[in-house]
């Protein structure tokens, strides 16, 4: 592919830093269209292609390496993006044209129970390959415009130290979401507040043991 040789320089064009615990994007090549920022990296769509590049914070080369290895182990499972290339601090993978479940809640896009079952299948298939899925939260699950489910951000799929109960807790939260009285559209402010309370184990019903 003609683009292959360009990936390294596209990744180099991305300047990011961590400020007050959050990633700040400083500059990037105009060919890159920002799609999302997480806690370890920033993701872009490359031009109008079907490719996405995830560029990690400079100090997280090890995480980039680990995530690339895990994508290779997941190769062929349709629920995960295909990994095209990886470098010291970046991954090039399929661009998923869709919305994270977080965006669905913010925009009032209904999440049907069938999507949850699909996520369960995706996790089962990863487990079948000897992995231990973790870090499964609303921003790492995408609903594509074709109506299928994709999981991203698999760097912690090999962490076995602690049991991560996020996905089981989210499924329990879904039983409340399904109730008629529960709002189907939630502002990002409140969603982030709920996530922060959850992380600090301040939501009595959804306590978890991890850090
Ligand atoms: N391949 C992709 N296709 C579409 N969107 C993506 C893709 N990879 C990442 N994103 C978006 O970028 C955000 C950050 O990427 P993510 O891999 O979760 O980074 P982090 O490891 O920092 O959490 C995601 O929440 C999602 O919105
Ligand atoms: Mg993420």
Brief digest:
This protein is α+β, with helices and mostly antiparallel strands.
Structure description:
By secondary structure, the protein is an alpha+beta fold. It is about 30% helix and about 25% strand. The protein is built from 6 helices and 10 strands. The chain has helices spanning about 5-15, 60-75, 100-105, 115-130, 165-175, 190-200; strands spanning about 15-20, 20-25, 30-35, 40-45, 50-55, 85, 90-95, 100, 140-145, 150. A hairpin with a 2-residue loop joins strand 1 and strand 2 (about 20-25). Bound molecules: adenosine-5'-diphosphate and magnesium ion. Magnesium ion binds near residues 38, 139, 140 and 153. GO terms for molecular function: ATP binding; protein kinase activity. This is Protein kinase domain-containing protein.
Give me some keywords for this one.
five-stranded antiparallel β-sheet, 211 residues, Transferase(Phosphotransferase), domain 1, 23% strand, three-stranded antiparallel β-sheet, Phosphorylase Kinase, domain 1, alpha+beta, binds magnesium ion, binds adenosine-5'-diphosphate, single chain
């Amino acid at each position: 592919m003609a683009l292959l040789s360009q990936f390294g320089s596209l990744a180099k064009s991305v300047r990011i830093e961590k400020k007050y615990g959050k990633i700040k994007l400083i500059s990037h090549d105009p060919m890159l269209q920002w799609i999302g920022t997480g806690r370890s990296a920033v993701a872009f769509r490359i031009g109008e292609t079907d490719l996405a590049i995830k560029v990690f914070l400079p100090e997280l080369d090890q995480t980039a390496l680990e995530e690339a290895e895990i994508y290779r182990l997941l190769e062929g499972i349709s629920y995960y993006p295909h990994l095209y290339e990886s470098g010291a601090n970046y991954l090039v993978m399929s661009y998923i044209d869709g919305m994270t479940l977080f965006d669905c809640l913010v925009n009032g896009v209904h999440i049907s129970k069938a999507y949850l079952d699909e996520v369960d299948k995706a996790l089962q298939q990863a487990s079948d390959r000897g992995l231990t899925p973790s870090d499964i939260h609303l921003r790492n699950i995408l609903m594509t415009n074709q109506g299928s489910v994709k999981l991203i951000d698999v760097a912690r799929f090999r962490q076995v130290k602690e049991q991560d109960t996020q996905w089981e807790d989210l499924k329990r939260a879904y039983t409340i979401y399904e109730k008629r009285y529960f709002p189907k559209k939630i502002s990002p402010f409140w969603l982030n507040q709920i996530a922060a309370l959850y992380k600090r184990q301040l939501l009595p019903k959804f306590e978890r043991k991890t850090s």
